[in-house]
Amino acid sequence: MIDLKDYDNAVIKFRKSLNYTVLPVLSWDFFAKNLESIKSSDEDMIALMNLGSLNSWNIDTEVLDERLKVNKNVVVVTDTNLNIVFATKNIWEMNQYHPNEILGKNPKMFQGIKTSKSTLKIVSEAVKTNKPFEVTVVNYRKDGSTYNCWIQGQPVFDQKGKVVNFIAFEKEVA
């Protein structure tokens, strides 16, 4: 019969010869959350590219990628009637809505009594004239609490120069 001590010693010797670092279990949670965020933004980027292809967007995809992955902006896309046709998954972190809850609705659903009418007028004029805009507005979460939302919006043109969508890059700010 083989002595198990020899086996155990061989395993110990082998493991010591390996060059790897053992991470504490606690770090797995951080890694997993970051990995999930990367996966989610990749899925959002693919969905955005599909929407762009469907509507023949004339837009710099590198800018979209940077806004989504590096800046971690929430991205909301509406049709020309201002109905939401796409929202990134990270919108939930900002306002507690899942993207499928807001599809087909107007972004006005995030507004309330504390939302500045003068700021909304700036947005409205920019949309009517197909111009880009940048504002910070008080929006409302699903639970009714408020947050300051920085929004940089712009029309999205197709290859023929026709406005086919509006896109907004958003982020909660202090």
Automatic annotation (TrEMBL):
A Pfam family the protein falls into: PAS_9
Keywords: Chromophore, Flavoprotein, FMN
SUPFAM superfamilies recorded: PYP-like sensor domain (PAS domain)
Name of this chain's protein: PAS domain-containing protein
InterPro entries xref list: PAS (IPR000014), PAS-assoc_C (IPR000700), PAS-like_dom_sf (IPR035965)
PAC domain boundaries: 131-174
PANTHER family: PROTEIN TWIN LOV 1
